[in-house]
Design a protein that fits this description.
This is Angiopoietin-related protein 3-like. By secondary structure, the protein is an alpha+beta fold. It has seven helices and 13 strands. Among the domains are: about 70 residues; about 45 residues; about 180 residues, Gamma Fibrinogen, Chain A, domain 1 (Alpha-Beta Complex). The protein is flat. The two termini are about 80 Å apart.
């Protein structure tokens, strides 16, 4: 603004010269007037620019003011929501405390209600007794009033009668109030019972769901209706643990598989540095009775988290696909471990799951190094074995050859008679075992990371 004033003063000074002009200065004067026009034009442009800047600043201030107003509204809304959430939380805590208090006082209320009902019954009985007495007195007084009582006595008796009637009315009102209070107590008790049922139902449902998950995850649930272990529908399940590993699973655990020409079922897959295995038998503490029937050995029994037998039907479904070996691992009572790896062929139920073995690696066993024709037998099913009483004499189901040579499904016992327990006869002598694990080794070996 100061610059504009100076420019105007300069223009006025040049407009009124104090010295006379001469003809030779006409050209210079014209130039000065031309410069003044330019200055005026510049001044007008600066003035318009100033007005524009002022309008822009005012618009910007207005927009900033609107933004601050919206921010204040948002802050107020957020604060109100925070206060409302705090109030809801406090009300929830108060409700929980009230529920606890109501539950604690439920028995006291119940006892008071019973006591009140008892007193009400006593009052009713007493009222009936008083009515009978008053009725008898009225009859007596009526007879006496005609013969003996004076007028004053009759008035006194009438007064007493009115008092008794008043007392009866008071008792009736009291009984009515007691009934209303009893109804309120019953309603309150019903509400408390409803709250207790809701809490108990939620707790029981959660407990049952946890127990069902735990039971389903560890038990041998038989064949699955095309569902995976987490309950989701699937018709494209892997055929064995080898395919489970090839699909990217690297952690040992329970997986649903579907071998060719079989229904889906759960198996325990182990992925180790030695290879990929489907565990078909596990013994370690004797917690599961392996002296089972033929039907049990076909279907499977036990618990995946402890001891189990997968089942001959499922074992055959996995073995029938080929490209696998039979891996046997045992541990004696001195904690020494032994293992054997066999080439094998397993026949179906029509041939009593006859097994053919050939030792590939591991410790030699005269009974199982190379043999064709071991038929599976149980205490209630024997067909063609050399000694038909092996399963009954040595307990458990097994591919018996000569009784006493091998039985990994006997009882887990260390003391005699050892023929009843798990044992193995590698060459000379018979060794009793504490733990065993039989697996189908798939021809897929995990690569080191």
């Amino acid at each position: 603004m100061k610059l504009l004033v100076l420019l105007l003063l300069l223009a006025l000074t040049h407009s009124f010269p104090t010295e006379p002009t001469f003809p030779e200065h006409q050209t210079e004067s014209r130039l000065r007037f031309a410069a003044l026009d330019e200055v005026r034009l510049l001044a007008n442009g600066l003035l318009q620019l100033g007005h524009s800047l002022r309008d822009f600043v005012q618009n910007t201030k207005s927009q900033i003011k609107d933004i601050f107003q919206k921010l204040n509204i948002f802050d107020k809304s957020f604060y109100q929501l925070s206060v409302l959430a705090s109030e809801i939380k406090e009300e929830e805590e108060e409700l929980k405390k009230t529920t606890v208090i109501l539950k604690a006082n439920n028995e006291e209320i119940k006892s008071l209600s019973l006591e009140i009902n008892s007193k009400v019954e006593d009052i009713i009985k007493e009222r009936k007794h008083l009515r009978r007495q008053v009725g008898g007195l009225e009859e007596k007084l009526s007879g006496l009033s005609q013969s003996l009582l004076s007028a004053e006595q009759v008035v006194e008796i009438s007064t007493l009668k009115e008092i008794i009637l008043t007392q009866e009315k008071s008792i009736t009102d009291l009984l009515k109030a007691v009934r209303e209070q009893s109804e309120q107590l019953n309603n309150q008790r019903t509400k408390i019972k409803g709250l207790e049922n809701k809490f108990n139902s939620a707790h029981i449902q959660e407990t049952d769901e946890n127990l069902d998950r735990k039971h389903q995850s560890n038990s041998l649930s038989g064949y699955l209706p095309y569902f995976t272990s987490d309950g989701s529908f699937s018709s494209n399940l892997p055929k064995d643990c080898g395919e489970v590993f090839s699909r990217g699973q690297k952690s040992s655990g329970l997986y649903a598989i579907k071998p060719h020409e079989s229904q889906p079922f759960l198996v325990k897959c182990e992925f180790t540095d030695e290879g990929v295995f489907t565990v078909i038998q596990r013994r370690h503490d004797g917690s599961v009775d392996f002296n089972q029937s033929w039907e049990k050995y076909e279907d499977g029994f036990g618990d995946f988290s402890s001891e189990f037998w997968l089942g001959l039907k499922k074992i055959y479904a996995v073995a029938h696909q080929g490209h696998s070996l039979l891996h046997v691992q045992i541990e004696d009572w001195r904690k020494e471990k032994h293992f054997m790896l066999y080439q094998y062929i397993l026949e179906d139920a029509a041939f009593n799951y006859t097994i053919h073995l050939k030792l590939q690696t591991g410790e030699s066993s005269s009974a199982l190094d190379e043999h064709s024709g071991f038929r599976f037998s149980t205490k209630d099913h024997n067909d063609g074995n050399r000694d038909p009483n092996c399963a009954q004499d040595y307990t458990g189901g097994w591919w018996f050859s000569i009784c006493g040579d091998i039985n990994l499904n006997g009882k887990c016992i260390q003391s005699r008679p050892r023929k009843k327990g798990t044992h193995w006869k590698p060459g000379k002598g018979t060794t009793s075992f504490k733990a065993s694990k039989i697996s189908i080794s798939h021809l897929t070996k995990p690569q080191p990371p």
